[in-house]
Structure to design on (251 residues):
């Protein structure tokens, strides 16, 4: 086996998802939810403006605190401020799930994901998740899609306060499990975040072009993140990924 440790991005890589946080109905829904459940009254337009402002402020403050160029806040800090009074963990989880479900209109695994992950596990490889995401949004989606069973460990950026392409995010995973970098490969659909974090950490990468980017766009971004072309494999879809991972990497 060329690689023993497969570190996957989630959205756009394993899960095909679509969310829209700009739709007015979402903010009307949230205003109603806050009023009914917490007695907090907001106009929907103002609610969205305040949400975005708190996100920006919290991100700036966190970046100053932890020194990362790529800080990742916890979304519950933002909702907590909007509610304006203490709430329980269960109440916060329900709120996050409701908001996410309302904003989301697509959530499916890509064809080929299940058989590839199964093949890796059967061959004795290890599977990790390294996702730029909010734990309170993502946990339920990992359960719903049945992916949670495949992971040896799950790293979500909101837990650590930093996100890809900050190399410390990947190094935290590598360090925790004592992985050898030459036995790891990062698989993801965003050049700057996924290939970028792998390049910064000194790990090989597989770029999966699920969003149909042009060759020019891919090359431009590879250059932007100073990727070593010899250490990046570009694949068009999961059929190719399955073929490569099971034929080349697992034998
Ligand atoms: Mg992605």
């Amino acid at each position: 086996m060329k690689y023993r440790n497969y570190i996957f991005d989630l959205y756009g890589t394993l899960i095909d998802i679509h969310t829209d946080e700009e739709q007015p109905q979402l903010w009307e829904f949230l205003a109603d939810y806050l009023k009914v459940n917490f007695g907090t009254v907001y106009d929907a337009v103002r609610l969205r403006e305040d949400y975005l402002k708190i996100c920006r402020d919290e991100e700036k403050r966190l970046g100053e605190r932890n020194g990362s160029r790529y800080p990742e806040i916890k979304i519950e800090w933002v909702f907590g401020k909007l509610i304006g009074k203490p709430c329980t963990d269960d109440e916060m989880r329900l709120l996050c799930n409701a908001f996410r479900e309302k904003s989301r209109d697509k959530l499916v695994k890509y064809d080929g994901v299940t058989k590839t992950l199964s093949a890796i596990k059967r061959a004795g490889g290890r599977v990790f998740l390294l996702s730029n995401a909010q734990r309170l949004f993502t946990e339920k989606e990992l359960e719903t899609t049945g992916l949670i069973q495949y992971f040896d460990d799950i790293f979500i950026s909101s837990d650590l306060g930093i996100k890809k392409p900050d190399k410390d995010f990947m190094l935290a995973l590598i360090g925790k499990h004592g992985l050898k970098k030459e036995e790891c490969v990062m698989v993801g659909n965003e050049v700057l975040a996924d290939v970028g974090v792998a390049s910064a950490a000194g790990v090989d990468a597989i770029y999966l072009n699920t969003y149909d980017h042009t060759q020019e766009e891919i090359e431009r971004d590879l250059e932007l993140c100073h990727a070593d072309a010899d250490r990046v494999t570009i694949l068009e879809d999961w059929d190719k990924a399955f073929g490569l991972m099971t034929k080349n990497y697992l034998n």
The radius of gyration is 19 Å.
